[in-house]
Write a structure and sequence with these properties.
The chain is mostly helical. It contains 16 helices and 2 strands.
Length: about 400
């Protein structure tokens, strides 16, 4: 899985009562017949668990290439915010005030803060989001997915990125006991003496308090320690590509985590799925995140071959998975100094833009004709596509039910 690929995975875990890592629907999940995808939202699949997340990643990715999203897309995201500053994964009725049943979370809030900073002009919403994040910081300095939940590396990292994007100094944002998000990440880091797992971060301690290396959490943690947010630039190659003994500082956490990821990527050029029970297959999103993290912390020396692997193999995955996946690949291109408009022959920017309403100011890769079709309604809108898909799903369910009765 990959929390950075889709907060849906975590949210669904909460919904079904699980307490460990996220395990449910990603952006490629089938839409629910009860949910109509808003016209301002990126992607056509059910947004229940990841609407804010995928919208936010799309905005940040577009910002790296100078694309400004449509006003209605920005309004939709800003409208998802509750009065207290928090964001839920998706609110079908944004005009309705949030209540006790509205489940807000740190990941959606932090992602939205990064996105609203990127689009600009939303200082009020950003300030409220930051205030909510500060209010819900745990005593150990970190953040859990839900307010009051145990801190995890992924949630803590996306919040650190949001704080930095909003102009805060993450290390200075501390809890009552004086702990920062960096302290929380350091508590989840495996020491260099842990062999092949040295330098990695765990998602959370297990029931026995032990730490298990998690590449997904490590990639998130590297960016969290660097304070770069989702879209870091290219880092400078260090003097040594080895795990440092003192891993408590932000710099050491980022370096050690990147060294661990480098070693993982050097084995197959890609990372494998870590979901329990899943087939032994490439994890495209996790690989993209790892490439981004290593490039941001250590420079591009060890990312050239894994990035080339992504160019060759990840296009079909992104097309199926939607805007968040395209955004992850844009982040990888940005961090490694590559052109996202020429990703193995695919224009990632154009592909991402087409998953939502036509941008207010499109970059050179989007033709005027593409914009015109979206603006004047001559093209089929995503809302219509969503409704047609929902109708098709309903018919399929009816037919399936009839077959069962006849058998």
């Amino acid at each position: 899985m990959n929390i950075r690929r889709s907060a849906a995975l975590v949210a669904a875990t909460v919904v079904i009562g699980a307490a460990a890592a996220p395990v449910a629907a990603a952006d490629s999940a089938s839409p629910s017949p009860k949910v109509v995808v808003p016209s301002g939202l990126y992607g056509t699949t059910d947004p229940t668990y990841d609407g804010v997340w995928r919208q936010s990643l799309a905005f940040v990715a577009q910002d790296t290439v100078g694309v400004r999203p449509a006003g209605k897309a920005v309004d939709w995201l800003a409208g998802q915010q509750c009065e207290d500053g928090g964001f839920a994964a998706f609110r079908a009725e944004p005009g309705k005030a949030c209540d006790k049943k509205t489940v807000v979370d740190s990941n959606s809030t932090a992602a939205a803060v990064q996105a609203l900073v990127a689009v600009g002009g939303r200082d009020g919403e950003v300030a409220k989001g930051v205030a909510w994040l500060k209010k819900n910081q745990n005593a150990d300095g970190g953040w859990g997915y839900n307010p009051g939940g145990a801190s995890d590396a992924n949630s803590t990292s996306v919040v650190l990125g949001a704080l930095a994007a909003a102009g805060e100094k993450p290390a200075d944002v501390t809890s009552g006991p004086g702990k920062s998000g960096i302290d929380a990440l350091a508590a989840l880091a495996l020491p260099c003496s842990a062999g092949k797992s040295g330098g990695a971060l765990a998602y959370q301690p297990d029931k026995k308090g032990e730490l298990t290396a998690n590449a997904d959490a490590t990639a998130a943690g590297v960016l969290g320690a660097l304070g770069t947010g989702f879209a870091p630039g290219k880092g400078t190659a260090p003097d040594a590509y080895t795990c440092e003994k003192d891993g408590s500082s932000a710099e050491a956490l980022a370096h050690n985590g990147a060294v661990y990821l480098q070693n993982q990527l050097s084995t197959h050029l890609y990372l494998k799925s870590q979901l329990a029970g899943a087939e032994d297959q490439p994890d495209y999103g996790n690989t993209a995140d790892a490439v981004t993290a290593v490039a941001a912390a250590e420079g591009i020396k060890y990312t050239k071959d894994p990035y080339a692997w992504l160019e060759k193999n990840a296009q079909a995955w992104a097309e199926q998975s939607g805007p968040a996946a395209y955004a992850q690949l844009v982040f990888a291109a940005h961090a490694t100094g590559n052109d996202p408009r020429d990703f193995g022959g695919t224009d990632l920017v154009k592909a991402l833009n087409k998953t939502g309403p036509a941008p207010a100011s499109a970059s050179s890769g989007d033709s005027d004709e593409d914009k015109k079709k979206d603006d004047d309604g001559s093209g089929v809108s995503w809302w219509i596509v969503g409704v047609m898909f929902i109708a098709a799903v309903g018919v399929g369910i009816m037919l399936s039910g009839r077959k069962k009765k006849q058998s």
